[in-house]
Automatic annotation (TrEMBL):
<dbReference type="Pfam" id="PF13883">
    <property type="entry name" value="CREG_beta-barrel"/>
</dbReference>
<dbReference type="InterPro" id="IPR055343">
    <property type="entry name" value="CREG_beta-barrel"/>
</dbReference>
<feature type="domain" description="CREG-like beta-barrel">
    <location>
        <begin position="12"/>
        <end position="156"/>
    </location>
</feature>
<protein>
    <submittedName>
        <fullName>HugZ family protein</fullName>
    </submittedName>
</protein>
<dbReference type="InterPro" id="IPR012349">
    <property type="entry name" value="Split_barrel_FMN-bd"/>
</dbReference>
Length: 169
């Protein structure tokens, strides 16, 4: 019998991986958000608009009418997938970033709301049409860990500091 030694597929996180992950995060305008459905606990994934706050943390503008907002209110644990496939080649060879997070909903009257609103409109100018509707609010996604797939054979585990943001808590 031939013994096969398991090789850890995770590479040491280096500056190139950090830069790629930061570029994916700051360049993203949409992402897939994974939440747990209240009541059933079943996983649910939805597409959201995404941006960053002044501390480089992911942020999203969400409606209280959406299922994912209700899910985040019931359980703030979530994950986000960022990265779009390129125009050519196998979509799985293009870089993508998965973030494990806890959503912190920001009340409309909270001190940081106005700053988030201004920054959001810089990143998403078309949101001016609905950003002030009563059912819309912000969620800051406090990242606990990230996983970068930089392409075939390029896997990394990232801490919040690797993404240029403060550590959670």
């Amino acid at each position: 019998m031939i013994s096969k030694k398991m090789i850890d597929p995770i590479r040491p996180t280096d500056d190139e991986a950090r830069a790629l992950a930061r570029d994916l995060l700051t360049g993203a305008r949409y992402a897939a958000l994974g939440v747990l459905e209240p009541g059933t606990g079943a996983p649910m994934v939805t597409r959201i608009a995404i941006g960053t706050d002044a501390s480089s943390r992911p942020a999203t503008l969400i409606s209280s009418l959406s299922q994912h907002t209700a899910a985040l209110q019931a359980n703030p644990a979530c994950s986000v997938l960022i990265g779009e496939p390129g125009d050519k080649g196998d979509p799985l060879t293009h870089p993508r970033l998965t973030l494990q997070c806890r959503a912190r909903l920001v009340a409309r009257g909270a001190p940081e709301h106005a700053e988030l609103r201004d920054r959001w409109l810089e990143q998403h100018p078309k949101a001016k049409l609905y950003i002030d509707f009563g059912d819309f609010g912000f969620a800051i996604l406090e990242v606990s860990r990230g996983f970068l797939n930089g392409g075939f054979g390029k896997a990394y585990v990232l801490a919040p500091r690797d993404l240029g943001m403060p550590a959670k808590g």
